[in-house]
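Why L-lactate dehydrogenase complex protein LldE? Reviewers of the renewal asked for a concrete example.
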Amino acid sequence: MNVQLFIPCFVDQMFPETAFNMVKVLEKLGCNVAYNPEQTCCGQPAFNAGYHDECRSVATKFLKDFHTFDYIVAPSGSCTGFVRNYYGKLFDNSAAHNEVKLLKKNLFEFTEFLVDVLHVTDLGATLNGIGTYHDACGALRECGIKQGPRKLLENVKGLELKEMNDCETCCGFGGTFSVKFEPISMGMGEQKVNNAVASGADYLISTDLSCLMHLDGYIRKHGTNIKIMHIADVLASGW
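Here is what the prediction returned.
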């Protein structure tokens, strides 16, 4: 099976090890993994800030970079959800209509691809400790991802999965929301971290590094004893 990698901007710049771990998992499952180095942003930050014309320019390049019949896999429910749900509006009544349909058909978030396409829930991973899972808004609300990540985590040897209170509540990041409404954003982050700690977890796990980056800022500032982990890093552990 051929797989094209879509690596979001912040993963590329700040968490490249997660991208490499995603490759590690996909190759273990027999996928032929390819990466187009010409790829850039999907356009979500510009779109969310109201710059739709500028977003359309970036998205047009994205369509060209990912004009493929292969599966496209990304370690982000947020970026995956944006492309799926908003590219159709960006390119409505345009010559790119069929390209958008093809892209939406082939694009999957990482855990979604493992569970729903490859039908795999046990990667043979090992991570000792207690983990709790944060339902990122992009994954849950934009992609409908809920049980898949939990099935994968339940099969990690040595990892006890405990649900935190309000696991579906937003962490407060929301892209530019965290800049424009910093006090509210930090209050939401504090609540999320406190709920994770109250669960007894050693690891706060999610599908989206945007959320985890935001929460890790609070954790580091306050010296909280919990570690963030993207689910790809968890699934690549111990083998």
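The chain has a mean pLDDT of 95. This is the kind of structural detail the renewal will allow us to pursue systematically.
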